[in-house]
Amino acid sequence: MKDALPQSIDETQELLSSADYVADRALATVVYLSFKLGRPLFLEGEAGVGKTELAKVISQALGRPLIRLQCYEGLDVSSAVYEWNYAAQMIEIRLAEASGDLKRDEASREVFSERFLIKRPLLQALEAGKEGAPVLLIDELDRTDEAFEAFLLEVLSDFQITIPELGTVSAGEPPIVIITSNRTREIHDALKRRCLYHWVGYPEAERELAILKARVPGAPEALAQEVVAFVQELRGQDLFKSPGVAETLDWVTALHELDQVALDPTVVNDTLGVLLKYQDDIERMEGSETKRLLNQIQSEIRAS
Known about the structure:
Blueprint: H1 9-18, H2 25-37, E1 41-44, H3 51-62, E2 66-70, H4 77-80, E3 82-84, H5 86-99, H6 104-111, E4 117-119, H7 121-124, E5 135-139, H8 146-158, E6 160-163, E7 167-170, E8 176-181, H9 189-192, E9 196-199, H10 205-215, H11 221-234, H12 245-257, H13 265-275, H14 279-285, H15 288-303
Parallel strand pairs: 1-8, 1-9, 2-5, 5-8
Antiparallel strand pairs: 3-4, 6-7
Helix pairs in contact: 1-2, 10-11, 10-12, 11-12, 11-15, 12-13
């Protein structure tokens, strides 16, 4: 049984918190408005800041199924929307031929009926089950091309898909739609106009610490504070790719597994590969630079 949608911004924030997602008020506001207005939510931001996780959390908190369309270069209608089961259709035609019951018009209607239709994520999202309308996650839309964006316009405007052989399939209850982009390219204005927009940035230290405590509750307090302070300082460095919240969580989990209760230069250097994903960034930070940053943040923590 699906849960009711929240009726205020505060309830929305509480809903997300119930699934250990620590959202600021601006994000809770746009999520609430997306629910109330029935509009897709378009999230942009760096990788690892919690865009995809938001869709998972909404699905979990509302008791709705999550349907995920992972985008990639070359994604087409047959992979994203539907395709026909050609093998089963051919078998059906051969059986009809063998029995002598083959009539062209009837055979055409039969093989292009719904029982031969393979439903992909976008078509599945138009069908509400007993749990209610699903949460549709269109993940990393910037990886697709403009032709696929153009196809999405009908889906996002009217929540319907036209199948030439069957007609138009419409959603009785529109799905909750979350679209994410890492901004490797610009998404067309025509698609953005159909959505509510929010930029998901890196969290400030206080909220990142709250996220860490919610997701890795067993981490020692001193370690959690030092990890957050170190990552916050790291994002201010001239790196090819700054660590996201996902990397912060991975790092503190790894340090906890190593029985660390605080940071030291050796363990930081040994585990930089959990936090940074490019060798140039690791080489820039390891050694004396790591020690300098670590001394700086530990002095600031002691002084606070």
